[in-house]
Every structure is written in structure tokens, then in C-alpha cells.
Amino acid sequence: MFMGTYQHTLDTKNRLIIPAKFRNQLGDAFVITRWMDHSLRAYTMRGWQDFSAKINALPETNAKARQFKRFVFGGALEVEFDKQGRVNLSQTLREYANIDKDVTVFGLGDDTFELWSAEKWQAYEEETAENFDDIADGLEDLGF
After folding, report:
1. Per residue in 104-138, is it b (16+ CB within 10 Å) or e — as a string?
2. How far apart, in Å, are the Cα atoms of 3 and each of 6, 19, 50, 131, 135?
3. How is residue 66 annotated by DSSP?
4. Do the beta carbons of residue 93 and residue 114 sit within 8 Å?
5. Where are the beta strands (DSSP E) in the chain?
6. Is 53 helix (H, G, I), strand (E, B) or coil?
7. CA atoms within 13 Å, Cβ hemisphere of 30
8. What are the tens digits of pLDDT across the range 17-57?
9. Strands 86-88 and 15-17
10. Alpha carbons 4 and 64: distance in angstroms, whole number
11. Which pTM was predicted?
């Protein structure tokens, strides 16, 4: 399970160290794609296969489904670790997530974790902390 928050820095070749606790669960390769809130989402290969199946099941005749599919698959990149446990973040992914140097990596449970610009994550986290009670109250409608 992917849990916790980690701070890392891109090196001069735009390589990012993935936390060791995450690497142990990922195997040799995993997928990173563009996600909501101008963040990046990473999936285990199994998680990516499950998620891809859901996207591919969306109706092709629905315009929003086509947009979502194009955006997610068009931004997806299968990455592999180098000997030091780093992955290369493409320019497209870095630009989308506004990642210049400092990166926050945090777990989201079974098959995914996210990567954010450290600056954007700090602002997002502060805002979420301010509204956490209201956010939690709204989860009742979702069956939580």
C-alpha cells in the first residue's frame, strides 16, 4: 500500500528518486500520467491495467469520455528505474505539473501515488487542512 508524503528534488537530468517504500511495491516499471489539479498520478502496472480497462469501457460516443481518454492516455508514460532508483520525468509531464525542481510524492492506497510541485502541494494541503471538517462531512453523500 502506498502511504506517506515524501519530499524529493529533480537532479540536473530531470531524474527523480522514488521513495524506497514505493519502489519495493512497483517492480521494474510503472506508469505516470497527467492527472487532475495539474498533478501527476503514478500507477503500478496492475493498477494501470485496471484503470485502463475502466477508461476503455467508457462510451466512445460521449464527448467528455473521449476527452478524458485522450488526455490521460496521451500523457501516459511507462517508466523504469535506473540503478539508483530514479526515473526520468519527461518535459511534457514536468511542464503540465509545473515541476521545476522540488517534488512532493505521496501515497494514495493500493495501486497509486501522486507527484506534485512541492510549492503547489503545500498550498493545496494548507487549503485542504482549513476545510477538512467540511470535506469530511460531504463524504456521507458518497457512502463513507
Report:
1. bbbbeeebbbbbbbbebbeebeeeeeeeeeeeeee
2. 10, 11, 20, 22, 20
3. H
4. no
5. 5-9, 15-17, 29-34, 40-43, 77-80, 86-88, 102-107, 112-117
6. helix
7. 26
8. 999 999 999 998 999 999 999 999 999 999 999 999 999 99
9. antiparallel
10. 33
11. 0.91
